[in-house]
Structure formats: C-alpha cells, structure tokens
Amino acid sequence: MTFTDYIFETSSRLDKTAVIIDGKEMSYKDIYSQVEKVKAALKNTKGDSILLISENSSFFIQCYFGIIKSGSICVPVNPSISSQEIKYIMDCLDIKLVFIQEKYKKKIEKVISSEVEIYTENEIEDLPYMQDEDYQIISENDTAVMIFTSGSTSKPKGVMLTHGNLKHNTNSIIEYLKLTESERAEVVLPFYYCYGTSLLHTHFKVGGSLVLNNRFMFPQTVIEDINKYKCTSFAGVPSTYQILLRMTNLKKCKLPSLRYITQAGGKLANVFIEELMDTLKGTQIYIMYGQTEATSRLSYLAPCDIKEKIGSIGKGIPGTELKVLNKEGLPVKPGKVGEVVAKGKNIMKGYFNSKEETDEVLRNGYLYTGDLATIDEDGYIYIVSREKNIIKSGGNRTSPKEIEDVIVQIPDVVECAVIGVYDELLGEAIKSFVVLKSDSINMDTKYIRDFCRDRLASYKVPKYIEFLKKLPKNSSGKILIHKLKEMEKISI
C-alpha cells in the first residue's frame, strides 16, 4: 500500500468537499479521479524522481498524490526559487519528468533539455481517466517524497522521506490534535513545505477539508475566510501570527468556529504567545517543534500547559522519543544545555546521495537536530539556540553561505558574512556584513540587493546590509560569526 492509498483508504469515493479554492469546491471523488489520471500517466516510473512546481492548488494535490501512488518519488519545490536552483536539483536527481503550473513554465524552459517531459494543468486535464488495478509493490522503507532543504553549505540537501515516515507522522499528529472528519483548516502554508504538507496529509486522512488561501499578502483575508467557511483550525509560522496580530484587526474579531491553532517553524516570542491567548480566548493553542528530517513534527506543547510552560516546545509527539543529550551522549540535568535528539518511525531515511552528511545527523539510532536546549524538572524542553548556522526567515530556511557566495561575485566586494537578526514580523531577517575594496566609490546597498534579487529567491535577499572595513576573525582567518551577532545586539 502506498502512502496515497493509505490517505484515500476510506475517502476516494466520497462526494464530500475536500478542498475549497477561490470559492470553488472539489470533492474527494473528483480529486481522486485526477490522482488516478496522474498515476496512469506514470507507468514504469517506479523509483524515479519527479519534480513538482506549483503553488497550493488542486493541481499540486492531484500531482503530489498521483506521483506517490505510482511508486515514483515526488520532489516538490518552491516556485520562487531560481532557475539555477531548479537546474541543480534536476541534475542532481537526473529528473526526466516535471509537473509544473503553466505560469511557471518559462522559468524552467531555459534550463531543461529536450528529453525532459513536462505536464502542466492543461495536459493533466486532457489525460484520460484510467483506474489502474495494477498496484505497485511498495515497501514502507521506499522513498515517497524528497524535500530539498538548506544545509550548512550553499548546496541544498535532499531529505528522503519514506511511505512509512509519512504514515507514522500523520497518525501521530491526528492523535494529539484529536482530528476528525468535521475539521476544516484555513491553509496559508505552502504544500512544498513539510509543515504545509502535514496539513494536507492529516486532514485528507480523516476526511476533513481545506480552504486554500494564496493571498496572505492581504492578511485580512485569513480572518474573512475563517468566518466565511467556518474553519475550525489555522496553522502558521511565527511571522504569520506576528503579521495577523500587528497588521490586521484580529484583536477586534470574533472567530466562533476556530477550535485550535498551531504554530511551528521557529520560536514565537512569548509576548506574541500571550497576545494570542488574550485575543483567541476559547481557542486552543498548540506550540510545536519539528524538522523536515523528522517528516514534520517532533514535539508539541498542549494547550493546557501553555501558561505554566510558556516558551517550551513541550514533549515528543506520540510514537517519538525526544531527549536532550550532553556531549557525552547522556541526558542533561534540568537547567543544563544539550542537543535535542529524536527517535521514531517518522525520522528520515537520510539525505540523498550524501552518506557523510547523513551519518553526521543519524547516529546511534537518533536524529541529532542541531538545536541546543534545556529541560525543566517536569521534562519539558526549551530551545536555547540553533547550533546549525541556518536562518529561519518567515518560515523559510536559508543557508548564509549561499547568499555569501552570490555577494562575493560582485567585483568590488572583498568578503562578506550573513547572519540572521531579530525581526518582529519575520522572526529572523537576513543581514549581510560587506567589506568593499578601498577604491570602491559607487557601491551601495541597492546595488547589492538588486544583484542578489537577480540570482536568489526573493526571501533570500538581505533585508539589511552594513558595510565594514573588516570582518572579525580568529588567528586562523576564520570569520567570527558570534562577534557579528554581538555587534548587532550592541547596535540595538
């Protein structure tokens, strides 16, 4: 049984609404017939990687589940990434087939060969419906999805998630959120992001429904949708809630249908958690923690504990063991700092074609998250800092090295360093420290941003740029990132 079969086990023939997009409803039966079309078009592709480039849409859903049902590996990517980034992924995986929305087609035409087959929503519509009874023999350990995530180097890493990983994480989330067929989620998180796909997985498994909102640039529409469609839940990263609290009339609105909200994708400051509690009285608030390498979720803080344990990520989700270990591999005592590690059937198979990086994080049966944390006397975990040098800005994970490698291509730039700095809306904003040649006279922040904008996804372009005469370094010439962060705190 594939993960798709598991998801649609009881719902494939239901006339019940599964998705609402721009006011239009689609039933489970309609969606599943489209899934079958995609699956039928992918004969003899078992084990092949297939790229999926799409915003949240019925096209994404039918292609995502259709690819997985065929026994192929679905590789969903952010439509805003550059053509060169897409080419890197395609070359890395030797991709021969792409499902892409028509409006993004031009982005890939310059970087693909004539051998690559392309399907848009137009081609999908013309595919004949064929219910294929020739089910693929799929193992729980076969890779179903590969999500590329920024690592400690400038090159993204392909996280291999198996059919079993997806099933177990889905079951765990359904259990602790107590999801039922009556659930209806307002969705702004993209499905190419593991937090977003977890909403798709869990709600489709229980027979609930999703309202897709691709207009978060107008955040007031979220509030309007929740009331219009009587949504029972909403999910967001820190910047999502900071924008809703500070840039909409949320505090003056009543949301009677909203049973619960969830927050993950980085630490939300306690002041915003308190504002949410004051604003959404009667609505349960789940603070959660996870990683792509863990399929999505690793821990949650139950609503009943949020006041007493504010700032905590809680404890492991059902079926996942979460510990904080010191450098000797022993559990830390309360108040002491160690690294968060996890064990469970939701932990990834590994990084694609990268045994060395896989072995760095999968050790002794545990996933080493790279996050430093402490625990209290009751075993609740509190993240202290991120050991990995990754910037989380607005829910997007970005490698500083990738941005640095672009900026130093400017002839007048001698060197640069990129860090994440506190930002009220984004959680972290990207800041670049730049050292120029002594005779450089025409270089300014606008030029650097424009240069980055032409070569990077928009969310990777530095929000702040500061020029320095030199970067702080140790005796071996290594840039001291912590010194830059200290300088930033002093300037504030």
Automatic annotation (TrEMBL):
InterPro entries: AMP-bd_C, AMP-bd_C_sf, AMP-binding_CS, AMP-dep_synth/lig_dom, ANL_N_sf. Residues 14-352 form the AMP-dependent synthetase/ligase domain. Gene3D superfamilies: 3.30.300.30, N-terminal domain of ligase-like. Keywords: Ligase. The keyword Acyltransferase does not apply. Residues 402-478 form the AMP-binding enzyme C-terminal domain. The keyword Ligase applies. Belongs to the ATP-dependent AMP-binding enzyme family. It holds the Pfam family AMP-binding_C. This is AMP-binding protein.
